[in-house]
Amino acid sequence: MAETVEEPPTPAIVPAVGDPASLGLGAFALTTFVLSAHAAGWAPDVIWVGLALFYGGMAQFLAGMWEFKNRNTFGATAFSTYGGFWLALGSFALLDLFGKVPSAVNVAQAQGWFLLAFAIFNTYMLIASLRVNLAVFGVFLTLEITEILLFIGFFVGNTSIIHLGGIMGVITAIVAWYTSFAGVINSMSPRPILFVGTPMWGAPPEMARPGGPLPRREVSG
pLDDT class for 3, splitting at 50, 70, 90? Predict the structure, then answer.
């Protein structure tokens, strides 16, 4: 009688690391929402400063560092840069609050230059986001409009334009929250639940796609 040979169990495939993109998007969304609500004239000032330092800043910057582990250059660049954005903006706000900004410095003009510089950065990231998916492109597109409105408003000293930029910032936050939620809920299901779209300009390599396949390792069952 032939001997039955039992095959070894098939190793389970699990991600080597979790995807930090949803954390980065969530940190960006919440901090953007609170500051934008203030810029729109709906929410009080100052409360956004702590968020800028610890959530939009520190948490998002860490998400960018972890994206390097995923070999995701786009995500690492985006999250690290906008983490730095919030840390820098929060630090400037603290300097202003404690009277450490020289009186010769026009704070509104300084904010205008700050936002102009990040709008330039955001422009090429907007183009690159075409290779990610529709949801990520939507985040960068709404953010581009927000930054343009705000730097113009601060340069010309027009409160109405600043308020409009704030409203656009709230819309940006909603789009980023949706994209963050999609990353969380889709990672918990064998098939996508929330729509994020596909690349609109040629998909990048698998390992460079935010929200796409991660480096994986085998674990014996």
Answer: low
> Tokens 């936002």 label which residue?
115
12-22 burial code (b ≥16 CB/10 A, e <16): eeeeeeebbbb
Contact (CB, 8 A) for 20 and 67: yes
**What gap in Å lies between CA 88 and CA 51, rounded to an integer?**
12
The DSSP secondary-structure symbol of 104 reads T
State the Cα–Cα distance between residues 39 and 29, nearest whole angstrom.
15
Distances (CA, A) of 62 to 23, 103, 172, 201, 209: 9, 35, 21, 28, 18
DSSP 122-137: HHHHHHHHTTT-HHHH
- For residue 110, what are the contacts with CB-CB under 8 A and spacing of at least 6? 92, 101
pLDDT tier for residue 220 given thresholds of 50, 70 and 90: very low
217: helix, coil or strand? strand
Distances (CA, A) of 136 to 29, 34, 66, 175, 205: 12, 20, 18, 9, 17
Alpha-carbon distance 62 to 24, whole Å?
Answer: 8
| Contact in structure between 51 and 31 (CB atoms under 8 Å) | yes
The model's pTM is: 0.85
